[in-house]
What does this fold into?
Amino acid sequence: MPEPLPEEPHVSGGQRAPEGGAIAATGQDGTMDLATTEGETLEKGLGNADAGGPADKARSLWSDAWRDLRRNPVFIISALVILFLVVISLWPSLIASGNPLKCDLSKAQEGSQPGHPFGFDGQGCDVYTRTVYGARISISVGVCATLGVAILGSVLGGLAGFFGGISDSFLSRITDVFFAIPVVLGGLVLLSVVTSNSVWPVIGFMVLLGWPQISRIARGSVITAKQNDYVQAARALGASNSRMLLRHITPNAVAPVIVVATIALGTYIALEATLSYLGVGLKPPSVSWGIDISAASPYIRNAPHALLWPSGALAITVLAFIMLGDAVRDALDPKLR
Amino acid sequence: MLLEVRDLRVEFRTRDGIAKAVNGVEYAVDAGQTLAVLGESGSGKSVTAQAIMGILDMPPGRITGGEILFKGRDLLKLKEDERRKVRGAEMAMIFQDALSALNPVLTVGDQLGEMFVVHRGMSKKDARAKAVELMDRVRIPAAKERVRDYPHQFSGGMRQRIMIAMALALEPSLIIADEPTTALDVTVQAQVMDLLAELRRELDMGLILITHDLGVVADVADRIAVMYAGRIVESAPVHDIYKAPAHPYTRGLLDSIPRLDQKGQELYAIKGLPPNLTKIPPGCAFHPRCPMARDVCRTDVPPLYEVTPSDGTRVSACHFWRECLDDRVDRHVNG
Amino acid sequence: MTESTATSTVEPILEVSGLVKHFPLTQGVLFKKQVGAVKAVDGVDFTLGAGETLGIVGESGCGKSTVARMLVNLERPTAGTIKYKGEDITKLSGRALKAVRRNIQMVFQDPYTSLNPRMTVGDIIGEPYDIHPEVAPKGDRRRRVQELLDVVGLNPEYVNRYPHQFSGGQRQRIGIARGLALRPEIIVADEPVSALDVSVQAQVINLLERLQGEFGLSYVFIAHDLSIVRHISDRVGVMYLGRIVEIGRDAEIYDHPTHPYTQALLSAVPVPDPEAREHRERIILFGDVPSPTNIPSGCRFRTRCWKAREKCEREVPSLAVPAEFRHGFGPAAHDSACHFAEEKQVVPPEEPLEEPPDDHAGGAV
It folds into this structure.
C-alpha cells in the first residue's frame, strides 16, 4: 500500500547531501549551481517578475498563450482589423451612407470625386459603398466556410488518425474521392440546382469540397503527435482517449491546421467570386467583393480603381486572418516564447 | 604531420546570441595514427570535424580564426572548388547514421560506383567492378550479389560498412569518423571498430575518431583529445589518460562510467550541466562544475600546460594539473 | 539448489510467464490480410522480487522494449500472463486496469519526446493526480508536485516552466517525478539514461538508486549497456531474439556466464582501460541477428554460435539450470538456455590497480 507523499516529511532535507554534486540543491552551493548552470536555458524567466509571475499561481498553456498574445503587436493589429471588418459587415451603414444598389450608368468608370472617394464601377455604382457592403457576404462566406472546413476536417481527420484501422482506411478513400472532384465543375453541377439566393448553399458547398484537405493534414499531424512518448506516458498513467486527444494530441497537432485554414480563407472568398461569375453563386442583387472583382476585371485598363478597392479589401482581410493564425500558432508554442 | 588544427574558432548565430562552439582547438594527426576526439554533446567535437571537412553550414556558422593545415596547406585559404577536390579524394567522413547518409532509392553499387564515375571518370561497368571490390574490402559477404541491393536491405552494421567503403573509395589519406558505432549494437560495434583499425593500418591513413564513449576509445586510439566547451582540455597518449588523467573533467568522466567488472556503491557524478555556448563561464569553462576549482580558475583561462612525465606529448588545460595527476584532491569535499 | 534462477529469492511482486507478443504483418488497402508476424517477444518468463532490481539486457530488436510496454499495459500480450501480486493483469480493463496502473509506472528512454512540450512541468507531474483524483485531494496537488520536484533534485519553483527550458538530464528527472507521483511499487525503466551525456548518466543512475531506497521501489531496468545494468541490478536477464537466454544474479551472469551469447556480449563491451585489452579475449560473433519474422528452428542463437551442433537445430533449449551444473552450488548453477552450456570467464577478475579500487566510490561520505 503506497503511503501518500506528505507523510514523509521532507525526504529531501538532509539526506540529499550524500548525493553530492549530483543534485546539489542543498545549501548555498546548490543554489549557486542551479543558477549558473541552468541559467542558460532559463534566463528568460529568472529574475523577471513580470514574465515569471508569482510562482505559486499555476499556469497552463492556454493562460500563457493568452498572456503572450495580449502583448504581441501582430495579434493586436490583426485582431483590430478583423474586429473592424466584422463590425462593418454587421452594420455597413455606420460608415457608408449610400445605397450599394443605386447606380448611375452615366457615371460609369469615373474616378474619385467628392462624396465618392473610390470612384464608380462599370455600372456606375459607387465603389466605396459597394466595398463596404460587400464585406458582409465575403467575410461570412470566408469565415463560415473556413470554420466549417476546419472543424469538420480536423474532427474527422483527427479521429481517423487517432484510432486508425478500418475507419482510417475508409476515411482516406473518401477523401480521395472528394479530391477527385474538380471544384468549379462540382460547383456548376451542385449549385445549379439550388434556387435560394442566400450564402448558405455556397458555404455548404465549400465545406463539402474543402474538408478533405484539412482532414488529411489533421490526420497526418495527429499520427505524428500520437507516436510521441508523452502520449504513451499518459496512456500508461491510465488516461482516457478523450484526455489523450484533448490534452496531449490536439495542442501539438493544431499548428498545421491553423496555417492551412487561414490561407484557405482567402481562397474561399475568391471561390465565391468565381461561382458568382459563373452564375451559380450569389446573384446580382447581392453585393460581395468577389462579384465586384470579377465584374471589374474586364475594365482593368480603363478603370483600375474599380478592381483595386475590392481586391485591396480582400487582401487586407486575408492578411489579417493569416497574421492572426500565425500569432495564435506561435503563442501555442512555448519554445518561441 | 598529416593534419594540424591550430587555434580554430567557430561561432554560430542563434536566437539567444552568438554561440561559441569552437574556441581555439588544437590537435594533430599523423598518417597511420588514430586520434580520438572525446566530448559530450555541445563540446564542439563534431563542429571541428565539419570545419575540417569544409561541410559546416555557413551561415549560421562562421569560422572566426585559426588554421587547418592539411599536408602543409591551409585548407581555410583554399577556394571552394579547390576545397572540393580535397574533400572525398583526400579526406573522407563517416557518419553516425548510415541509413540516412545513404540514398534509399539507389542501389549501393550505384552509390559506391558514382564516386569513381564522378572523380575518376570511369565507365559504369568499371565502376561497378570497383564497387564490388570495395564491398569485399570492407568484408561484406557475397559482395557480387549484394551490389544490386538497396540500403534498406542491409543490417545496421552492414550499412556502416558500406559507408566505410564509400569513404575509402578514393583512398583518402585522412578519415574522420563521427560516432561511427554509436547507433550499432555492442557485438556489431566491435566488428566495425576492428575493421576501421585494420583498414587504417593497411592503407596507412590518419583516422580521427569522434566519440563520447570512453570504452570504444580505449580499444583503438593512439591519442586522445578531450574537448569541453569548444576547447581541448586534455590531449595525451591513450595509456597516460587512463592511468592518470591530468584534467579534472577527464577524471570525472572516467569515474562516472560504471564498470563491467565492478559493482560500485554510488557512481561518482560530475555536478551540474555542460555550459551554454552563448554564455561560457569566464576563466576555465569547467570551473562551475570542478571539485578543485580555486579563485584563479574563475578569472584566468588556463593555457595548455605541458604535462610530464609522458610517453609522448601531453597537455592539459588545468592550472592544477599536477594535483589532478596525483589525485591529491578530495573530490567529495562538499559532498 | 535446483530451483530456477528465473525466480527471485525474495517474495515476488511481479511474475511473468510465457509472455508472447507477435505483431501481425498485413497486406491490403482496405481489408488487410495477415501475411506473417514479427515475433517480437516469444516466450519470456521471469519474476521480480519486492524491492529488487531486475536488469534486462539485449541488443536492439531483441524485444526488451516490447516486454517493458507489456508490463505497463501499453501493449496487450498475444499470450502469457503477467501477475502482479498474484493477479493476472493482462486481461484487466476499465477500473481494475486503472488501479493496477497506479502501481506500475514507466520511465521512458527519450526525455525529449516523453514530455508534452505544450504542458508546464507542474501540469506534467500533476497529470497523474488528474487521472487518479482519489490519490490526492485537489487542493493538495500543487504542494505534492513541488515536493516531487524537490525529491528528484529540481527547484520546486520550476512548476510553471516548459520542458524545453530544461536540459536532457533535468527532463529525465521530470519524467521520473511523473512516474513517482502515484507512489507506484514498480517502475519499469526503458533505457532511461541512454539518451543522456556520460557525465549526466551517473547523476540519473544515482538518483534512481536513491529513490529505490527512499520509496521501496522495485525496478525493471531495461538497457543495452551492460556496465550500467550491472551497476544497478540485483539480477540480470539476457534477451536474444524475443527470449531470455540466461538469467541469474549479477555476479552469476557477469562473472560466470554459461550461455555463449552472454559471453560474446560481455566480451564485446569496450572497457575504458587500454591495459585490459591485452588480457581480454574478444569473441566476435559473425553475421547479424536473424529477422524476428523468421526465427531459426531449435536454438535461435545457433546461426551465430560457434558451438552450434546438430542438436541445436532440432531442439529448443529450455531456460533452466544446465544439467552439468545442476548438482553444484556454485555461481555457474543458474538458468541458461543452451544445450552445451559451459562456464567461461570473459570479464577479467578485478585486479588490484595502482590505486585502491574503492578510492572513488568510498569518497562519498
Observations:
- Chain B is about 35% helix and 20% strand.
